[in-house]
Design goal:
The protein has a domain at 107-136. The chain has 6 helices and no strands. It has helices at 2-8, 11-25, 27-82, 85-96, 111-120, 126-135. By secondary structure, it is mainly α.
Length: 136
């Protein structure tokens, strides 16, 4: 009955409907659509993987940034300590052998050398060891 109805309509509309029906119903058009969909899914999949990798790298870089901020804070604290009068005074006492008025200094830096020297002189009589201990 549809065929009779189509024949009764104008011939231009019938040709247009037949052309669309043939294209939509053809196997080649179906294969073409499947190929386009497959390519689209592959592209979308690649984009998703790329975004995942970028987010992963961003998280890694954020972790490194946190570590660097901690190190920067430690260095800033060290710099502020190195600028204090307490540190400058301590270094002046150690490096330049300076002291405050009325203060006496005892230099114990040579004790290690004496210990090593005394250990190497373990040979010999006891009286010689005592003499070396007090007079060298």
């Amino acid at each position: 009955m549809n065929n009779q109805f189509r024949h009764k309509t104008s011939s231009g509309k019938q040709k247009n409907d037949d052309w669309k029906g043939k294209v939509w119903g053809s196997n080649i058009f179906s294969v073409f659509l499947i190929i386009i969909l497959t390519i689209s899914f592959v592209k979308v999949g690649k984009e998703i993987m790329l975004r995942y990798e970028i987010k992963k790298e961003i998280n890694t870089l954020r972790g490194q940034l946190g570590e660097l901020e901690d190190k920067t804070a430690k260095v800033d604290k060290l710099i502020s300590y190195l600028k204090t009068d307490e540190y400058i005074e301590k270094q002046a006492r150690i490096e330049l052998n300076l002291s405050k008025a009325g203060e006496k200094q005892i230099n114990l830096s040579n004790i290690d050398g004496l210990k090593n020297k005394n250990l190497s002189n373990n040979q010999g009589p006891n009286i010689e060891k005592w003499f070396n201990y007090f007079f060298e």
